[in-house]
Write a structure and sequence with these properties.
globular; mainly alpha; single chain; 271 residues
Length: 271
C-alpha cells in the first residue's frame, strides 16, 4: 500500500521487493504446515486446493488491476486493492490458524536439528536439489508468461489488424483482462487435474509424480510457442493455445510441493 504512493522508482522497487519477500515466505511455510495436518492422498488434495491461489490469484490480478486502473485512470490504484485481502489473511493467521506439531500427520517423533545440519542434508538430497532446480525454471517461465504475455499478445494483435476498421478497440487493458480470464481458468482446471491424475497413477506407478510433471512440461513448450506465434494471425487462437499451455504448466504446482513433502523429513520441510 505504501509503495503505491511512492514517486521515486527505487523506493517503489524496495516496497515491492518487501511484498515479494512476504509472499515467498508464505509460499514456503504454508505447504510445510499443511503437511503437518494431512498425510498421503488427503495431503495431495489439500495442497491442490492451496495451490489454486497462485495461478488463479495471478489471473484475477490482471482482471482486477486492469478494471481498477481503467476506472480510476491511475494504475497505482490496482496496487491499493490487494492490501485489503492481505490484511484479512494476516488476521486469519493470527487469530484462527493453529500451528500443529512438526510431522503430526505422519506420526513423526523426530527432533529438530540445527539449520546448518538441515541445509547440509538438503544439499545431499539429490531428489530435492533437482526438483528445486526444475521448479525454479517452471516459475521463471510462468513469471515471464504473466509479465510479457499480455504485451506480446497486444503487439501481435495490433500488427495483425494493421489499418483495418475497429483496430482502436484492441487495447492493452482489454487484452490484459482477457488474458487474466484465460490464466484464471487454466489454474482452476490445471492444478486439480494434475493432482488428480497423479493420485490415480501413483498407486500403479511408484514414480508417477515426476512422470506427470515431465510430460506436462514437455507438451506445454510447443503449445506455448505456437500460441504466441499465432498472435500475429488470430488473437482468439492465441488465447486458446495459451490456455492449454497454462493448463499444463499449472498441473505441476501441487505435485512438486507434494513430492517435496515426502522426500524431506518433517523437521526440515519448512527450511
Amino acid at each position: 500500500l505504501i509503495g503505491s504512493f511512492m514517486h521515486n522508482f527505487w523506493l517503489f522497487l524496495m516496497f515491492r521487493a518487501l511484498v515479494g519477500i512476504g509472499e515467498a515466505s508464505y509460499s514456503v511455510v504454508a505447504p510445510a504446515i499443511i503437511s503437518d495436518l494431512f498425510a498421503k492422498d488427503q495431503r495431495s488434495s489439500v495442497l491442490a486446493l492451496f495451490y489454486f491461489a497462485i495461478p488463479v490469484g495471478t489471473g484475477l490480478g490482471y482482471i482486477v488491476g486492469s478494471e481498477v486502473a481503467g476506472a480510476t485512470d491511475d494504475w497505482r490504484w490496482g496496487l491499493r486493492v490487494t492490501p485489503i485481502m492481505g490484511a484479512l489473511a494476516v488476521f486469519m493467521i493470527i487469530f484462527i490458524m493453529q500451528d500443529p506439531e512438526r510431522g503430526a500427520a505422519d506420526g513423526s517423533k523426530l527432533k529438530p536439528t540445527s539449520p546448518i545440519s538441515d541445509l547440509k542434508s538438503l544439499v545431499r538430497n539429490k531428489s530435492y536439489v533437482f526438483a528445486t532446480i526444475a521448479f525454479t525454471c517452471v516459475c521463471y517461465v510462468a513469471g515471464a508468461l504473466m509479465w510479457w504475455g499480455p504485451n506480446f499478445a497486444f503487439v501481435g494483435a495490433k500488427a495483425a489488424c494493421g489499418n483495418k476498421a475497429n483496430c482502436g478497440d484492441i487495447t492493452l487493458a482489454n487484452v490484459s483482462f482477457k488474458f487474466g480470464i484465460v490464466m484464471t481458468l487454466s489454474g482452476l482446471l490445471g492444478v486439480p487435474a494434475g493432482s488428480y491424475i497423479s493420485q490415480i497413477i501413483r498407486h500403479q506407478v511408484p514414480n508417477a509424480d515426476p512422470i506427470v510433471c515431465a510430460v506436462t512440461l514437455l507438451v506445454s513448450v510447443p503449445i506455448l510457442f505456437f500460441g504466441f506465434v499465432t498472435a500475429n494471425y488470430s488473437l482468439s487462437l492465441c488465447y486458446g493455445l495459451t490456455f492449454f499451455a497454462g493448463l499444463l504448466l499449472n498441473a505441476n504446482w501441487s505435485i512438486v510441493s507434494d513430492m517435496t513433502m515426502y522426500i524431506v523429513i518433517p523437521t526440515r520441510r519448512g527450511v
